[in-house]
């Protein structure tokens, strides 16, 4: 009886692990999608308002989205002074907000790369920086979605099918453990 209960607990635990692993793939795609939408908004704001980058970043600060939290953190670091450049503030905020999420290393590098290019040229140059960065981020999002479809689906199906494994109680009762005991 204990062996049956242990088997069922193991199967349920593995099912939960599969669901949690699949959720990490969804979180990555959601996080990248959220950041892309905010960068698109940032690009439009820069084109139409033509304000300074620190003001624009402060405007995008929003506690309701993860990318909004990123811009809030960037703005906070920049306002605190200490002689940090916008690039340093952007990198620090990316480390603070996104390293704890399910993003891949190259996702975070792409986010940091955008920050390193901001403010390095005029407004027309900035538009090209945004276009290139958005193109790279969309490619990363497409990779993340493909990975989610393949690996996420695999983990979900393992989680769903694991509990449906059928046991032959006669075989379990005749099972011997590693020590050779029944």
Q: Could you explain how this protein is built, in words?
A:
The longest helix is centred in the N-terminal third of the chain and has 48 residues, at about 1-50. The chain is built from seven helices and no strands. Helix 2 (about 55-60) packs across helix 3, helix 3 (about 65-80) crosses helix 4 (about 85-100) and helix 4 (about 85-100) runs antiparallel to helix 5. By secondary structure, the protein is mostly helical. It has helices at about 1-50, 55-60, 65-80, 85-100, 105-115, 125-160, 170-175. Residues about 165-175 and about 175-180 have low confidence and may be disordered.
- Main sheet summary: none
What fraction, in percent, of the residue positions are helical? over 70%
Number of helical stretches of at least 4 residues? 7
Shape: elongated
Give the low-confidence spans. 166-173, 175-180
User: Which class of secondary structure composition applies to the elements?
Assistant: mainly alpha
Q: Termini distance?
A: 12 Å
Radius of gyration, taken over Cα atoms and rounded to an integer in Å: 24 Å
Number of DSSP E strands: 0
Question: What's the SSE blueprint?
Answer:
Blueprint (H helix, E strand, L loop, with lengths): L1 H48 L3 H8 L5 H14 L6 H13 L6 H13 L5 H39 L7 H5 L9
